[in-house]
Amino acid sequence: MANHGANTKRMTRPEEGRWIEFCRAAKLEQKESMEACKASIFKAYLFWRTRNSRIKKESSIMTYWNVLSMVYAERTKRYMDGGVLYDIGNWIHTSLTPEFDLDTSKKEKSGLFVEDLDLILHYHFVRDEELYTHERLRVQLALILIVAGATATRPDALIARRLDRAIREFHDTIHAEEVDRQIQGTKPDAELLAPSETEYELRERAEDYFKAGKDLR
User: Which domain of life is it from (predicted)?
Assistant: First the structure.
């Protein structure tokens, strides 16, 4: 069953608040209306949601609908009926979008410009003075930056999302003396260097580089 992480829960809270607001306006009991899982109620909510907001794109209301379905799974401890999901998705395309003249255009993702990637890699190899758990990670991160730039993929999507697990494994398996050995340039002990910890470090540093990319010009 759904076991949403902290980030997902933070994302669902605002949408759940809008659902409660809608139920008050429509004089509906919010818990019972959610559990009833009726397409007609969800359609009324999405119509109200669009009319009482600045939504201009179809993709936005689709996102809100997907988030509401996660709220449903979290609150009812079951997944939404596939027939309802199909019905609502089709209704958004054929009825809601024309009703509010929502924009259906897709935003093209562009890769990182070669000049920007060159600046990022120059900073990464020449100017960055921070210590890594092991310097081999600096080389691995460079590859991630190149792939992310070429494919227009967020670094977070290229590296396994195991932040909580990585933190736990770091504290459980990495010894202070091992870190000291690696900082001094000693070959790391493969049994002590947890792979998921290196994933976390690479992901965090990759995201920092991309955020700082514009400042390097």
Answer: Eukaryota
CA distance 175 to 199: 18
Q: Model confidence over 87-126: pLDDT tens digits?
A: 999 999 999 999 999 999 887 666 667 788 888 888 888 8
Helices (H) and strands (E) counted in the chain, each on its own, are 12, 0
Q: Which tokens in the block code for residue 152?
A: 């227009």
Q: How far apart are CA 50 and CA 43, in angstroms?
A: 11
Distance (Å) of CA 63 to CA 9, 68, 89, 178, 214: 15, 9, 11, 45, 29
DSSP 8-state symbol, 127: I
Between vectors from CA 190 to CA 185 and to CA 196, what angle results, nearest 5°?
A: 105
How far is the C-alpha of 144 from the C-alpha of 139, rounded, in Å?
9
Measuring CA to CA, which residue among 5, 4, 2, 81 is closest to residue 36? 81
**Token digits for 127?**
């100017």
Q: What angle do CA 172, 178, 180 make, to 5 degrees?
A: 125
**pLDDT-derived band of residue 177, with 50, 70 and 90 as boundaries?**
low
